[in-house]
Specification:
This protein is an alpha+beta fold. The protein contains eleven helices and ten strands. A hairpin with a 4-residue loop joins strand 6 and strand 7. Helix 8 runs antiparallel to helix 10. The longest helix is centred in the middle third of the chain and has 33 residues. The radius of gyration is 34 Å and the shape is flat.
Length: about 425
């Protein structure tokens, strides 16, 4: 039977536009800001929307993907919606009655400031010219963070056996000392000395005849906290990880994922001066939320699965883990994951990779106040703001070849306690 020949994929772009208007009453104010009246003058607000989708059409996609064929095509979607005032600022001299208007030009009658209070028109943001807010991570940095995370999850190790072996002597010493302290504590408890028994079990090194020394107690608490966090818990995780590695289920294909999230806000203010002494105070409020998800579809040789899961091939990461205070550096720049991502993946075949970025950005521009110099009255439209919202999603079927380690702070209350305990421990060593 002759194999079916499919037509080549092609790119398509779809655009959908929408527009609507609403009407509201306006308000009249004196130049001192006091309200005169609401009038029947109508202020309109216009809604504009644009949806733009660009994707790749693959003939026979459903049947071909069901048979295992892999498609990794680019995609982009952006939805922009804006609500803007339409109408006029109306200024008139006090010499012209509000209820007997004559529409003619000149500084002695009406002055019209057309279209959105004469502020610069919106430039509809697109995926290409969106930009970043001050204080937000760049897109390149977020893609690097997500890529490193995804690559470190390709046949992710359940344990680092090389680190476990290298620290075996320290682990045996920790278990032996703890067992000895516990045995001595039990002996003191049987002698009717519960206070001394507890302190002995905790490893307290100060005198206990009358009172507990504060410095010795703080040092003991710091040491015990670090022993639990970076001694006992890793030991438990190593045991569980080793068991998990031997129970790892083999599948023909795996998907590794990595994520990066960021958000930022910004406020800008300024003034806009028009003719006849009218000064507007304006404010621009912006918010930005971004999320990057990296993906790697791969297959692995069954014989290479166990060595990878045991971490026998993660040599660069293992060396880093053995370095003093490397875990502190990882709180701010995740060197460990970066080295893990760079470690060889023997028997692994990458089938497809890329990333998807979703963005939500809001811009609200508003008139916060106006100042009139001279004897004028103003008729202002309601809803004095421009609102613009951009939602976009982009898929790029490629990851950076050499992502750089980026600043990515991972600090929490436990690590804050870790920091204090480390400072106490190091200070005691300097004395």
């Amino acid at each position: 039977m002759k194999a079916r020949v499919w037509k080549p994929p092609h790119t398509r772009t779809r655009v959908k536009l929408s527009q609507a208007e609403t009407s509201e009453l306006s308000k009249q104010f004196n130049n001192n800001g006091s309200l005169i009246a609401q009038t029947t003058f109508v202020g309109r607000r216009e809604y504009q929307g644009e949806r733009l989708v660009t994707d790749v059409v693959t003939p026979g996609y459903a049947s071909r993907s069901a048979k295992g064929e892999i498609f990794n095509s680019p995609f982009s979607s952006s939805v922009v919606s804006a609500i803007t005032p339409k109408g006029n600022w109306q200024i008139e001299t006090a010499g012209v009655p509000m209820n007997n208007r004559v529409e003619y030009s000149g500084s002695d009658a009406f002055f019209f400031a057309q279209s959105r209070y004469a502020l610069p028109d919106w430039s509809f943001p697109t995926v290409d010219n969106l930009g970043d807010l001050p204080g937000s991570k760049s897109t390149a940095a977020m893609v690097d963070i997500a890529t490193i995370s995804a690559r470190s999850n390709v046949v992710s190790a359940d344990t680092l056996a090389l680190v476990t072996l290298a620290e075996l002597a320290k682990t045996v010493a920790m278990v032996t000392q703890s067992s000895t302290r516990l045995r001595q504590g039990i002996s003191l408890l049987l002698q009717g000395k519960p206070k001394q028994a507890i302190l002995q079990a905790l490893g307290y090194a100060g005198p206990v005849q009358k009172s507990i020394q504060r410095k010795a107690a703080v040092k003991t608490a710091a040491s015990k906290w670090l022993e639990i966090r970076y001694g006992w818990l890793p030991l438990v995780y190593d045991v569980l990880g080793t068991l998990q590695a031997f129970k790892a289920e083999y599948k023909p294909r795996f998907t590794a994922r990595g994520f990066a999230n960021d958000s930022a806000t910004g406020v800008t203010t300024g003034t806009l001066t028009q003719d006849v002494g009218l000064v507007h105070l304006w404010k621009l409020e912006q918010s930005l939320e971004k999320r990057v998800r990296a993906y790697i579809l791969y297959e692995v040789d069954k014989s290479a699965l166990l060595p990878q899961k045991l971490g026998l091939l993660q040599i660069p990461q293992s060396i880093w883990e053995l370095a003093a205070f490397s875990f502190v550096v990882d709180w701010f720049v995740d060197i460990g994951s970066w080295l893990d991502a760079a470690s060889p993946r023997v028997g692994v075949n990458i089938l497809a990779e890329g990333y998807t970025m979703t963005t939500n950005r809001t811009r609200i521009r508003s008139i916060t106040g106006s100042t009139l110099t001279g004897n004028y009255r103003a008729c202002t439209l309601p809803g004095q703001n421009d609102f613009c919202l951009l939602t976009s999603k982009v898929r790029v079927p490629k990851l950076p070849s050499f992502p750089l380690p980026r600043v990515n702070v991972k600090f929490n209350p436990k690590r804050a306690i870790d920091s204090i305990a480390l400072l106490v421990q190091q200070a005691s060593k300097l004395r």
